[in-house]
């Protein structure tokens, strides 16, 4: 039987092959190009057969499966992100948001999970630093970079409400 793959490959890296009945064939969707995501596999009749990018199929006839990809929706952040930490605060102790709010071109807002890359953060570097993030398992792509500004303070101030003054509480 002939097996054909569009938008992916068979286990040998080719897009077509000949198999006998009851052979198990592994199909792997190609990596999506920038701005797209894998959606599902469909057969020659446009029936959805799987939403997994890697599937095993038992051969019972000749067939063609196509990996279907869709464009990600371009969105923008609705706010700039900033936070402050004390000198020598470890990256894992920074209060980074788990979600950010994004807006599509119709102005509809949605909260989307985010992952932060704290590997470049230096807790001993005083001043402003930037931590970059990325949207997690999302149907969206950001029109701009996702980042949070982190201001590392050399001193910690406490506010005294009775005197209406600030005082250094920690160096």
What's the number of helices? 0
Distance between the first and last residues' Cα: 75 Å
Shape: elongated
Can you write the helix and strand succession as a string?
EEEEEEEEEEEEEEEEE
Number of strands: 17
Main sheet specs: 7 strands, mixed
In a few lines, what is going on in this structure?
The protein is mostly beta strands and 171 residues long.
What does this structure look like?
The radius of gyration is 25 Å and the shape is elongated. It has strands spanning 2-6, 8-10, 16-18, 24-29, 36-43, 48-50, 54-58, 63-71, 73-77, 81-86, 99-103, 109-117, 127-135, 140-142, 146-153, 156-160, 165-170. With 171 residues, it is an all-beta fold. The protein has no helices and 17 strands.
């Amino acid at each position: 039987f002939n097996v054909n793959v569009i938008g992916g490959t068979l286990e040998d890296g080719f897009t077509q092959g000949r198999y006998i009945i009851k052979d198990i064939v592994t199909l792997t969707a190609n990596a999506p190009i920038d701005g797209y995501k894998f959606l599902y596999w469909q057969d020659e009749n446009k029936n959805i057969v799987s939403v997994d990018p890697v599937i095993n199929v038992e051969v019972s006839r000749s067939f063609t499966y196509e990996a279907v990809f869709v464009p990600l929706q371009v969105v923008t952040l609705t706010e700039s992100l900033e936070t402050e930490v004390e000198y020598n605060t470890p990256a894992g102790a920074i209060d980074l948001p788990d979600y950010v709010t994004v807006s599509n071109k119709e102005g509809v807002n949605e909260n989307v999970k985010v992952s932060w890359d704290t590997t470049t953060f230096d807790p001993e570097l005083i001043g402003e630093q930037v931590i970059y993030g990325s949207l997690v398992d999302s149907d969206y792509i950001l029109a701009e970079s996702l980042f949070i500004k982190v201001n590392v303070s050399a001193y910690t101030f406490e506010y005294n409400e009775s005197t209406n003054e600030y005082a250094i509480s920690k160096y």
